[in-house]
Structures are given as C-alpha cells and as structure tokens.
Amino acid sequence: MSTPTSVKPVAVANTGGESDTPLARYAQVKSFIRGKIESGAWLPGDRIPSELNLVDSLGVSRMTINRALRELTAEGWITRHSGVGTFVAQAKPQSTLLMIAHIGEEISARGHEYGYQTVLVQRESAPPAVSNALGMPPSSSVFHLIGVHRENGVPVRLEDRYVNPAAVPDFLGQDFDALRPSEYLSATVPAHEIEHVVDACLPTRAEAALLEIGPDEPCLVLVRRTWMNDIAVTFARFVHPGSRYRLGCRIRTEDARFQG
Q1: Which residues contact 216 (CB under 8 A, 6 or more apart)?
Q2: At the N or C end, where does the chain have fewer CB atoms within 10 A?
Q3: According to the 3-state scheme, what is the secondary structure of the chain?
Q4: What is the Cα–Cα distance from 221 to 241, expressed in whole angstroms?
C-alpha cells in the first residue's frame, strides 16, 4: 500500500460571495480528489493526505475539506477510519450485462402477466450523486421517475431513474402507463454507450414498502448509465428482491479460440 504524502495546490474559484463560494470550493475539491483516483495517481487502499494537509495544499478551509470528504465517503470513493486515516476505497467486483432488456417483454415471453405503475415523475434539483453521475453541475435540474414493475401481480423491480432534460426534453410529457420509460427512451434516444454495475444491498424502508418486502431482504441492484454522443442521458437504479429475480446474460462468440 502506498501513501501519498503531498499534493499540488489546486485553483479554487473565489466569486466574492459568501453564499456561493463554499459550494464552488467544495465542488472543486471533490473534483480534484476524484481526478486523483480516476487517473490512478491514488490507488485503492492508498491513504490520502490528512485534512490539515489538504487545507494547506489546496488553500481552502477545513470545513470545506471535511464536507468534500464526507460526501466522497457516502458516494463510495473513499473510506474513513477514526484515528487511522482516509483511504481510497477498494474497487468492488463488477458483473457486466451486455444489453438493455425490457422487463415487460421478458415477463410476457414467459407467459406471465406484466404490470407497471408510475409512483413519481417530476422535475427536481439533482442530488450530488446524481449530478456527478450525469456529469452535470451541482443541483442541476433533472427529471426523476420512480416506478414499480410486477410479474403476476408481485413486485419484481423498482425503477429509480434520473434523466438529463437537455438530452430528452419531452420526457415528462409521456404517458408511461402506455409506453414504459425504457421503451420510450430506446425509441427516442440512441444509446451510444452503456454502463452496467450490479451490486447487492438491503433496500431502504421506502424501497421495501414499494416492493412489498421486509427491510432485511437482500436485493440485487443494477445501476445503469447511458450516453448519446458523449452526453449523459440517464442514471437509473433498478432494485430487485433477491428471492424473486436474477440478473444475467448469455452471449455467442464466433471466435473458436474463446475459452470463457
């Protein structure tokens, strides 16, 4: 494990107003730290400089550094251990799914009854994790949709989706009870790049209530991001009760040398 001992100063915007300057500094500190991690300068398991070191190196207040580190911890970039230090988070194994499948078609193909209900659809300010995922400025306006997918009347997927209004301006005007969100997006916006990440977790109380499961039932979570011409279009989180649904894919290769 290596231990970074110093960092170079980073330019921090000073707009002259007390109300907006902390946010600008906070956002730039987060961007600086994420850049170090994404570039490989700070590797998983590395201990990053202390708060006081970052204060001296970046020229910002300790409150600003602390807030940036707290949110980076919540987003999974770093881990903090009291009395020990702050470390780059270890990367989790990923299971890549190679295509966007429409759950309604899958359920109907099994001869089962498919149902969908929109719980929420509105414009709102993006939470920090969402604006980061979509590459948008903090608190940008986004479209937010929550829906529940059912198989034979039983909830099997909770869809929590954020959409970039610049990429899909007519999203809020759609009747998603007639045309599901993923079907509308597939027909409207080409996905030139797709990212899938699968993880296991426990549902929040709100998610458990919508899925009609207990709060201690393990779930599989598929997180998807899509891009069109390098513009982020969607950031979606699909929660599946582990006892009701599986995630996977099957591919065909024409290369006889492929050994799996």
Answers
A1: 202
A2: C
A3: CCCCCCCCCCCCCCCCCCCCHHHHHHHHHHHHHHHHHHCCCCCCCCECCCHHHHHHHHCCCHHHHHHHHHHHHHCCCEEEECCCEEEECCCCCCCCCCCCCCHHHHHHHCCCCEEEEEEEEEEEECCHHHHHHHCCCCCCEEEEEEEEEEECCEEEEEEEEEECCCCCCCHHHCCCCCCCHHHHHHHHCCCCEEEEEEEEECCCHHHHHHHCCCCCCCEEEEEEEEEECCEEEEEEEEEEECCCCCCCCCCCCCCCCCCC
A4: 9
Give the global pTM: 0.60
> Residue 8: pLDDT above 70?
no
Q: What pLDDT digit, counting tens, does each position of 179-229 carry?
A: 899 889 988 888 888 888 888 899 999 999 999 999 999 998 999 999 998
The count of other CB atoms within 10 Å of the CB of residue 133 is 20
Task: Kindly list the structural domains of the chain, giving each domain's residue range(s) and its CATH number in brackets, ordered by start.
Answer: 21-88 (1.10.10.10), 103-241 (3.40.1410.10)
